[in-house]
Specification:
Layout (H helix, E strand, L loop, with lengths): L1 E2 L9 H5 L4 E3 L6 E3 H6 L15 H8 L6 E3 L3 E2 L9 H12 L5 E8 L2 E8 L10 H16 L4 E7 L7 H20 L4 E9 L1 H4 L8 E4 L10 H8 L10 H6 L5 E2 L5 H11 L4
Parallel strand pairs: 7-8, 8-9, 9-10, 10-11
Antiparallel strand pairs: 1-5, 2-3, 4-6, 6-7
Helix pairs in contact: 5-6
Bound molecules: zinc ion.
The site of zinc ion has 8 residues, from loops.
Length: 275
């Protein structure tokens, strides 16, 4: 990893609301202006599918205006195992997302309650977890522990980043250790597992929250349905690994409508406030 100063024009909600680019619903394929999708909080007006929200927009939706302070914004990956084409992939992910990496971290206030927050970015290699993602999330937990602050985390991830090999898998243990120390110091951690939260992220910090919520219809699971069917020889239901299935089976505490997140999290932060 290295720190670089990059000239980057992040995209905010106002940019999406002003965009006449045509986008497609991730489920039904309906085409519409990006502005129309953004007006509906990225919920498809045709099929009601919760489309993915860019991380920086999610932070705007949740946090009190002007309170978000970003940590480690300029940290980028340096291809630790020399994986072919990884540098190009990073470049195109940076261009696509207008972000340096797959997670944005910092501190903020939600409903006047101070907290730390991390939000993963699906437009950056599908939020895959490499060393920078792991380092940034570890750092936000360490800051929160040192300052007795709760952590709010939004996950979206295809899992570990294969271009970093074993180093990406190590992030699972590293972040989990930081979550444990945060928890041992009696600090609150809420996770919202958004569509899709899978692989090594599900197998570590996405399932370690004191409260774990999700959104309607989100895919939350470890290995894919087909892989499990092939290994076990069992037929799995169509709803397998939907948020609704995981709620029924005890992996989630609640499914919260997107428009209610700010209020819901604000209430929980208030209940767990230390001072
Ligand atoms: Zn749709």
């Amino acid at each position: 990893m290295e720190q670089v100063k990059t000239e980057m024009k992040h995209k905010y909600l106002s940019d999406y609301l002003a965009s006449d680019a045509v986008v497609k619903c991730q489920k039904c394929g309906a085409e519409m202006a990006e502005s129309k999708m953004a007006e509906q909080m990225f919920i498809c007006p045709e099929c009601k599918k919760y489309n993915r929200v860019p991380a920086r927009v999610r932070i705007e939706m949740l946090c009190d205006k002007g309170t978000f302070e970003e940590f480690n914004a300029d940290v980028v990956s340096n291809n630790p195992i020399g994986f072919p084409d990884y540098d190009d992939k990073i470049k195109s992910a940076t261009k696509k997302s207008q972000e340096n990496e797959g997670v944005i971290c910092g501190k903020a206030k939600i409903g006047s309650n101070p907290c730390c927050i991390f939000v993963m970015e699906s437009n950056f290699m599908m939020g895959s977890m490499g060393s920078v993602v792991g380092d940034k999330i570890t750092a936000v937990f360490e800051y929160a522990t040192a300052h007795s602050l709760p952590v709010i985390g939004y996950t979206v991830s295809g899992g570990a980043r294969m271009q970093e090999g074993m180093i990406s898998l190590m992030q699972m243990a590293k972040v989990s250790g930081a979550v444990k120390r945060h928890n041992d110091a009696k600090n609150f951690y809420l996770v919202c597992a958004t569509d899709p939260t899978t692989g090594g992220v599900t197998a570590s910090f996405a399932m370690l929250g004191d409260v774990i919520i999700s959104e309607p219809g989100a895919l939350v699971g470890f290995a894919g349905k087909r892989v499990i069917e092939q290994v076990t020889g069992e037929k799995l239901p169509d709803t397998f690994q939907s948020a609704e299935f995981q709620l029924k089976n005890g992996f989630l505490d609640a499914i919260v409508e997107r428009s209610e997140h700010r209020e819901y999290i604000s209430t929980l932060l208030k209940m767990h406030r230390k001072v």
